[in-house]
Amino acid sequence: MIQFTGYELLWLFFIYSFAGWVLETVVATLLHRKFSNRGLVNGPLCILYGVGAVAMTVGLQELTGIWLFLFASLYAAVTEFTAGKLIEKIYRKRWWDYSKSRWNLDGYICMPVSLAKGALGYVVVRYANRWFFVLLAMLPQLVIHIVLLVLIGCLVVDVLASYLLVTGKSRHPEKWLEANNTIDRFRIRLGNRIVGSIEKRMTKAYPKRSTVEKEAKDRTVFAEGCDFYKVVMLFFVGAFLGDITETIFCRVTAGVWMSRSSVVWGPFSIVWGLAIAMVTALLYKYKDRSDTFLFWTGTFLGGAYEYLCSVFTEIVFGKVFWDYSKIPFNLGGRINLLYCFFWGIAAVTWFKVLYPRISGLIEKIPVAAGKIATWALILFMCCNVIMSCMALIRYDEREKGIEATEAWQIYVDEHYDDAKMQRIYPNAKGV
To answer: What percent of the chain has pLDDT over 70?
Structure first.
């Protein structure tokens, strides 16, 4: 298992974002028989490619052959689908549409494009990363860090400018003049030119861009539909129910009661909580689809999600929290076919049975009390996750013989010794 540094991952993000922009631009230019700039932001970057490449690099480095291709295709589809939903949620726009392509899902993704990006992901993980790391190693580290900081700064400015443009907040510069009459006229004219240039490019880049109407909501109802507060509440419900479900499952199958919690405070499974929150946010629009659709969608998404969680926890905490090596049809001990089917069954059960009832109960909470409770729970879980990370880091350090020298290390050793950590994480083992 290769542990990448933050600098390396950031460089991969920018490299593949630029490569994706070049690829998209070339393809679009050939199709339209004229130059066509691509990318959501104004700069020569397709952020979606960078995010997808980093996720594949970290999560799929152990896979080879057909498994690498299939999971890369799945990750590409999930990344593109998630990005499409987020863009529609934030900007009320759709930047691409595959509705006319075969085997598409609501126009956000389609099988041919996902398979093509899966093939690219295969090349990235198996070959391209190696070449880029060799190239970076040949350059002075100071230069690499300076250039990276400049790129990050430019991207931040670019994202903000694109957001203001797309949301319409920069289309009326005269309002800036009314609010800030001290602004120089030259700067206003320059700003108008910049905005006009960006808008012209964005229009050419995404001629199929369409506006999504915002749904009217009843402000007297707490967390109506699938808004931020609903998703947060569902995270906690899913984290609690997931912990209870796994605890009972272990009792039935192994004959023992054992903790299945992801954190040191309370019976909460972060893996389950995030799974419930994300699947609800992504598939809310399709909750009334057939059981078959929900089952297979849950099976594939659940498998990919569990695999990524396994890789993440191993890299960050140096621990393996579950191992399916002894179960047939497993993949590196991280996932297995039976539990992937379980994710599919869970998706059907969630949307068809549990979600309508739980959602109805959440919406009965008074608006003011619900918002206060939501933010209180967020604060609690943030502190819980931080303390759990500190405890797991020290758990791994003690196993390696590293003595406690800092105040936080001493505190953790006093309150979360090996015996207590073994009770909380009975299946955790060193890599």
So the answer is: 79
10 Å CB burial of residue 161 (0-12, 13-18, 19+) is middle
- Do 162 and 41 meet the contact criterion of CB atoms below 8 Å apart? yes
Domain ranges of the chain: 6-211, 228-430
Neighbours of 318 (CB within 10 A): 19
d(CA 389, CA 5): 19
- Confidence (pTM): 0.63
Q: Could you give the count of Cα atoms lying within 13 Å of 29 in the half-sphere of its Cβ?
A: 11
**From residue 223, how far is each of 40, 227, 369 by CA, in Å?**
30, 6, 11
Rounded CA-CA distance 140/259 in Å is: 48
Q: d(Cα 372, Cα 332) in Å, to the nearest integer?
A: 43
CA dist., res. 127 & res. 136, Å (int): 15
Token pair for 187: 């700067």
**Most distant CA atoms of the chain, gap in Å:** 77
**Residue 292 CA to chain centroid, in angstroms?**
25
CA dihedral sign, ordered 301, 303, 306, 309: negative
Does residue 11 contact residue 128 with C-beta atoms inside 8 Å?
no
Cα distances (angstroms) measured from residue 275 to each of 172, 289, 296 = 41, 19, 15
Q: Which residue from 30, 43, 46 is spatially nearest to 80, judged by alpha carbons?
A: 46
Q: Residue 66's closest CA among 130, 118, 112, 103?
A: 118
Residue 198 pLDDT > 90: no
Burial 329-349 (b: 16+ CB within 10 A, else e): ebbeebbbeebbbbbbebbbe
Q: Where are the alpha helices (DSSP H) in 333-406?
A: 337-349, 355-363, 367-399
The confidence score (pLDDT) of residue 136 equals: 80
